[in-house]
């Protein structure tokens, strides 16, 4: 049995959101990598490849839709599930997220009781 911790890349530029979400994910046994801006988010993809990405659509210097599309069109990364976690909650945001390959869409503030089961479900598919 593989006992490795699943790695989750959390991309968000709000320190409070990152801190709280990271704490909750680590308490559930996940290894959490964080990126607060465009450059660090892309840099994370060249180092330790995460098993799942939680992505805010509005991050400093980055269009979350473009980042999602980049991941989903890269042969070595496209298998990584992406959960969009954003304050944007319009129907078109959900549709745009799906059109660039996002696997799930959640609005802030995040409900851990919804996030954790979805992470587990998506990780079981890969």
Helical proportion?
A: 40-55%
**SSE pattern:** EHEHEEEHEHEH
Tertiary shape? globular
So how many helices?
5
Strand-pairing-aware structural class: alpha/beta
What is the rounded Rg? 13 Å
Report strand order across the widest sheet: 2-1-3-6-7
Largest sheet: 5 strands, parallel
Q: Could you name the ranges where pLDDT drops below 50 across 5 or more consecutive residues?
A: none
**Number of beta strands:** 7
Report the sheet-strand fraction: 15-25%
Q: Ends: how far apart?
A: 16 Å
What is the typical, i.e. mean, pLDDT?
Answer: 91
Record the SSE blueprint.
Elements lengths: L6 E5 L3 H13 L3 E5 L2 H9 L5 E4 L2 E2 L2 E2 H10 L8 E5 L4 H9 L4 E4 L4 H14 L1
Parallel strand pairs: 1-2, 1-3, 3-6, 6-7
Antiparallel strand pairs: 4-5
Give a brief rundown of this model.
This protein is an alpha/beta fold. The protein is 44% helix and 21% strand.
